[in-house]
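W.,

You were right to be curious about this one. When I first looked at the sequence I had no strong expectations either way, so I just let the prediction run and decided to look at it fresh. Below is the sequence, 350 residues in total, followed by the output.
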Amino acid sequence: MANAALVTQVTGQAWVRGTDGTLSPIHQGMQIPADADVVTATGASVQLQANGSGPLTIGEGRDVQLGAEVAQANVDPATAAAAAPADPDVANILAALNDGADPFADLEATAAVLTAGAGGDGGSSFTRLSSVIETTNPLGLEYPRPTYTRPEEVRLGGTGSDTGSDEAGTGVALDTTAPTVVVTINDDGTVTFQFSEVPFGFDEEDVEVTNGAQIENLRPDPTDPTKWVADLILPDNYDGDITVKVPDGSYTDEAGNPGSGDEDTTAVDTEAPSVTVELQNAGTDNVYNAEEIGDDGKVDALVVLGATVKAGDTLVVTADGVTAPLFDRVLTDADIAAGQITVQVPVGSE
């Protein structure tokens, strides 16, 4: 962009004030436009580099408006210098003044002044002076403006630096608010980390998971940088609670404020339920005869529920040669209390 200064180094916290008064953090490599306000916190500094100019450093506790001159190339002293006077009489006078001499005592009258008028007969006359020089100290004048509430605007031209402190303070409100996070274990096997602002320094090592579980593939949401998602990997043959926790201080915001933590807990059951099937009334030889088979051509099978079977589990009993399941429903507390289910199996099926 035209008339812009490049940020080559940032120490501490510094911002650019927008036209609406908002502060945007300054980072290395950023382009600062002309006439922008640069604000630095205590202990901070910003080094700028403009085309054709040397480095410009803005010290701590400053509120500086960069004039367009800061991005201009250095002025050639030879072209900016005042031209030497061509009149030799004027040059002699200036040389005498520079040497501390009295031009009226050391130079001829015609060299000291130019006169005109009526001469010795009276009348008017005039004297042309080469120049009048008055010293003003200090050169930088400041006039108080009681009704102007924002800091004085300082325009910097050419190159240089100002590392002085601002005794009156800049009035900039620094970000000291700690960021927060909400941890949620989702039903689809993922974990969501919703931050109050974009986190810095957050990775899988900052997440604690209990009872042998772990998270994998931690990534930011592609549409929301304050939202992160991870896959929750559960241990085998486990029945109990799993807690996912982000400890306090495990991440920061852009201003460096440490964040507060959060955690979420869920109950999981990865133990495989087990059952046994026992055919009933087969006799001592375990072979069904015509008397032992019912009139409907079916025999009873007893399904014994194992210790890992719980209410809410679904039990499905099938037999070879039979298309539809012989038993298919969710087990109730009464089923678990009974510890077994009786199912009728057609003879000839397995």
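Here's what jumped out at me. The domain at 181-270 is CATH 2.60.40.1220 (Immunoglobulin-like). And, maybe more interesting for your project: The first helix runs from residue 77 to 80.

Coffee later to discuss?

I.
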